[in-house]
């Protein structure tokens, strides 16, 4: 849909940044207004056009942020934690570029991720979302600011991340959603 059509508003409603005026939004038959915000956030992973990266942290810690803050009481030893991070990097199509750097996962991203390209930031954000293992993945204009090669890499990551879950993709370009089961044009 065109700018201003309400695409990002749908994401905001799903995330409960604000509530619907009429009707309801349900996940597995449960009205999301009846869920605590923490419970809802654990069910959803969000990747935005400009993902949030934490400047003082390494790539590993930026990816593991979701694991550390939403672990549902799970305790992982260092080996398990590292294996899950690497698996998420592979699925997000981020493993190769991360390990091309001498410091690999220990590379710091710089303030707001300035050391990374737009496509690299997106793939790190996708790895973080994958690690959360949500029922629902939300992509809000995740490829709109990328060049064609970066868009291709991110689209492959989105395809891999989509397995076994509901995915909502907000996009301007039909090419970003052409593999979707259902497409709604606003």
UniProtKB/TrEMBL annotation:
InterPro entries assigned to the protein according to its UniProt record, in alphabetical order: AAA+_ATPase, ABC_transporter-like_ATP-bd, ABC_transporter-like_CS, P-loop_NTPase, Type_1_exporter
GO cellular component: membrane
SUPFAM superfamilies membership: P-loop containing nucleoside triphosphate hydrolases
Keywords: ATP-binding, Nucleotide-binding
Pfam family membership, one: ABC_tran
GO molecular function, one term: ATP binding
Keyword Nucleotide-binding: yes
Keyword Nucleotide-binding included in the entry's annotation: yes
PROSITE patterns hit by this protein: ABC_TRANSPORTER_1 (PS00211), ABC_TRANSPORTER_2 (PS50893)
Residues in ABC transporter domain copies: 1-186
PANTHER family, per the entry: ATP-BINDING CASSETTE SUB-FAMILY B, MITOCHONDRIAL POTASSIUM CHANNEL ATP-BINDING SUBUNIT
Protein known as: ABC transporter domain-containing protein
Organism, scientific name: Entomoneis paludosa
């Amino acid at each position: 849909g065109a700018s201003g059509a309400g695409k990002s508003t749908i994401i905001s409603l799903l995330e409960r940044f604000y509530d619907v005026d009429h009707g309801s939004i349900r996940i597995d038959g449960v009205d999301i207004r009846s869920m605590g915000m923490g419970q809802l956030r654990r069910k959803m992973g969000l990747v935005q056009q400009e993902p949030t990266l934490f400047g003082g942290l390494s790539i590993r810690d930026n990816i593991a942020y979701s694991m550390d803050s939403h672990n549902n009481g799970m305790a992982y030893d260092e080996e398990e934690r590292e294996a899950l991070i690497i698996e998420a990097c592979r699925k997000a199509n981020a493993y190769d570029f991360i390990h091309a750097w001498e410091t690999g996962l220990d590379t710091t991203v710089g303030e707001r991720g300035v050391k990374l390209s737009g496509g690299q930031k997106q793939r790190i954000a996708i790895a973080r979302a994958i690690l959360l293992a949500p029922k629902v993945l939300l992509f809000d204009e995740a490829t709109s600011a990328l060049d064609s090669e970066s868009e291709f890499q991110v689209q492959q990551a989105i395809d891999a991340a989509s397995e076994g879950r509901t995915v909502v993709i907000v996009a301007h370009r039909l090419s970003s959603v052409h593999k979707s089961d259902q497409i709604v044009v606003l």
